[in-house]
Amino acid sequence: MDFPDQPVPLYLQLAERLLDAIDQAAMEEGTRLPSVRTLAAQHAMSVSTALQALRWLETRGHIEARPRSGYFVAKRSKRGKRANGAAGTAGARGAGASRWARPMPELDAQARDHLAIAGAPAAVRLDLASAETALYPVDRFSVLLRRLAYQHRDLVGSHVRGTGYPALRAQIARQAMQYACELDPDELVVTNGCVEALNLALRAVARPGDLIAVESPTYFVLLQMLRALEMPIHPVPATADHGIDVDALKADLDRGVPIKAVVTVANCNNPLGSVPSDARKRALVALLREHDIPLIEDDIFGDLCFGQTRPRPVRAFDEAHGNVLLCGGFSKSLCPGLRLGWIAGGRYTERVKALKYTTSMATAELQQAAVAELLATGGYALHLRRLKAALRNQHKALREAVLRHFPAGTEVTEPAGGLVLWAKLPAFDGQPRSTRTLFERARAEGISFAPGHLFGEGAAFDDCLRLNAGNRWTSELDAAVRRLGELAMRAERSAH
Amino acid sequence: MDFPDQPVPLYLQLAERLLDAIDQAAMEEGTRLPSVRTLAAQHAMSVSTALQALRWLETRGHIEARPRSGYFVAKRSKRGKRANGAAGTAGARGAGASRWARPMPELDAQARDHLAIAGAPAAVRLDLASAETALYPVDRFSVLLRRLAYQHRDLVGSHVRGTGYPALRAQIARQAMQYACELDPDELVVTNGCVEALNLALRAVARPGDLIAVESPTYFVLLQMLRALEMPIHPVPATADHGIDVDALKADLDRGVPIKAVVTVANCNNPLGSVPSDARKRALVALLREHDIPLIEDDIFGDLCFGQTRPRPVRAFDEAHGNVLLCGGFSKSLCPGLRLGWIAGGRYTERVKALKYTTSMATAELQQAAVAELLATGGYALHLRRLKAALRNQHKALREAVLRHFPAGTEVTEPAGGLVLWAKLPAFDGQPRSTRTLFERARAEGISFAPGHLFGEGAAFDDCLRLNAGNRWTSELDAAVRRLGELAMRAERSAH
Predict the structure, then answer these.
(1) pLDDT tens digit string along B127-156?
(2) For B131, what's the count of Cα atoms within 13 Å in the CB-facing half-sphere?
(3) Which candidate in A191, A347, A448 is best for mutational testing of the B interface (most B CBs within 10 A)?
(4) Which residue from B minimizes the CA distance to A337?
(5) Whether A199 and B360 lie within 8 Å, measured CB to CB
(6) Per the CATH hierarchy, to which homologous superfamily does domain B115-130+382-489 belong?
(7) ipTM for the predicted complex
(8) What is the spatial distance between Cα B109 and Cα B64, in angstroms, rounded to a whole number?
(9) Is the model's pLDDT at A80 over the cut of 50?
(10) B228 vs A102: CB contact, 8 Å cut-off?
(11) Which CATH class is domain A10-89?
(12) What is the pTM of this model?
């Protein structure tokens, strides 16, 4: 896209200047670019703007990131034409692309791998975080939906007003009370899945160009979402033991990194499976309150933590401040197919409501009524116990299979709950293996997983992969993991 | 909000400078500001950026627009404190606002009237464009949903992948064939209502800061959406006879207005009820193709046009170019409560799909399956005939009541179909009447309608109102319209 007569954003001005420099100096592939900080200082702009410029060039294939080394000029073959970017390759992808006279705007490689996962499923689905249908109370919902479709048939014919079915909002608040998290039904907005909740939360607290801190690694839909919203990403290290590194975040804030909001998946982190201690959650709340920075918390896996007590969301430690926008949903724990999520907007509630109205207006109420009834009449606790028991066994079987079949030295998390495992492949001949090549080879054989590069920026986590433990353990699954392990043995570092 | 260490957008820099000037010169209320063009020239920026700055100041109450006169410094009492804008009034609105230690970010007056309409319904609902439940095939859906919830119970427990239930996408394409509009099921994405379709379309073709041309007056959700997306608005005149003025749009393009995309509600325009001729539709397509500007078409009222033949969407005239993103849905014609819409993305399909994934991931499939079955097994044509016959009668009764009860000289459209009437009040003592005051008085008495200022920028259309003809005509409704007419008699021009 170009921007005729419009004020060109600063980061694009810098990107253009860098591109000119690369072209005019005919820089060789592999030439190292100045550091982000140097660029920011040279061009009198913020670090985040300079980063945005580098990211813009990276996603268009002009430069590439190497972990802990910086940015380098990419291979000429990858760089394509100047004005249209990768447009020339558009014909090769996407349904119906050839129907139109002009190519479609481009997507970056990460977005394409991401959509490959999200699209037509492979035979063996180790990619998305989802449990199989048999683990959900589908018969119960069948009865509920049939009764509601009979008794409340007006739910089909009525214009949907407002921010969610009142009975469901009341039940969400009641559930949260069980783990001492006070939510006001009036601050709750029911959404089309937790993804919509996150999207609304981000847009309620930040604008395009605002820097958003996220855990690294983090949920790939969140990264894609931030890119789509043009909000630059500030990664904060996270570990499988403690989740987000609050000290690192504090150091960033102390040295003035202009973070506008922080997003965390605190409970049963995706992909690491971590649950921070209450003390760490308190510290995070206090730190962000001190800097007056809102926290967006994705608690969709909270109900799937294996421990004795359901961990409290970070939001529970932010008493009476309204600084945490808590997002949740039922797609992991109760009914993936109904696409129901919710957000408690705290002091951003009014903005969230206004944004919901112009993003999708309202959420269909029939399924909201069904979930409200199921929560009200009990049985959710029993269902959760069964689901968690199944997941715990599946986690164990999958983990053991990975350790058995994958290259010696592969590390696998022991998550505190949730649906996924995170694995790191050992180096091969001193070089990190790339799960991106592994991904392509495995998909050609009908096996899909989530390659690590989706969870970070540039080549970070390219030697990692996320595996879905939501499937019942079978000999077929064991065979698929064995095959994946064989392919991983020869997954040498790709040039990417 | 403030923007620590972030590059400040050009329009905000100008807004700040103007605010400084107003404060330092202690400008009197009512002082006229330089014209948009003068400001743009003085500050070496585009007209749209200057307009954005003025709009920013207007929504914060620092200045106010007067029709055909320009912008003026607002009353000091309305301007509030500098940094926090209207934050001081936040406590008075929004549920739970007082719970939080700090006020929530502000909404502008238009957004608040808009949310008042969208929120708790009034006793007499003449506000939103929606027909009453009895006019929709709710019994039919009740049977369908019960059968589907029994036969396809896995729809509850399955993770939803992809861009829409295949059978529904096929049916949407088949329906469109009936009016010679070729859609490829693979370019279709099923959305959470037509509002989500519009939101995805805008984000697929434009970025924050890009100027979007819309009909004036237009659908207020679209205006709110553009503001939320930070896409400045370029109004193009539209008439109840012919819809958008293609010549005016051409003149704008010829003189270089940097329009990035155009949005049209061509068939049964909301609020005007117009249907342009095929020749005008062809001219619009040709003009935009010439300038390589995408058209976003909202055809949600297309099936509700009263004429003999269902008018073709503009998209039908854009053969093999993929330049029109066609948005539709079933919330007006078939099942408001199911919140189903769709978009045919043309050559922007891949971007639309990627955005859908990070905006709400997917749309629940149970209701998609129900609509697909209803469309496949016929009966939609018969339902439409009945619905349109009812709407035609209701339109007639409502129009006659308005002409009977409203001040002499009130003008009312005779729409070609759809759900709404658009009325213009005559001047009072040479001054235009304000439907904004009328709105407040009527709501206090339980009567709600859509005030004209929602459909444009600033004070444009403040003397107009939109009335929903979706309700069965009753003596209560007649009494409500009579009361509204009485209130309108004394709706003198407000200072606003």
Answers:
(1) 999 999 999 999 999 999 999 999 998 888
(2) 30
(3) A347
(4) B156
(5) yes
(6) Aspartate Aminotransferase, domain 1 (3.90.1150.10)
(7) 0.80
(8) 12
(9) no
(10) no
(11) mainly alpha
(12) 0.81
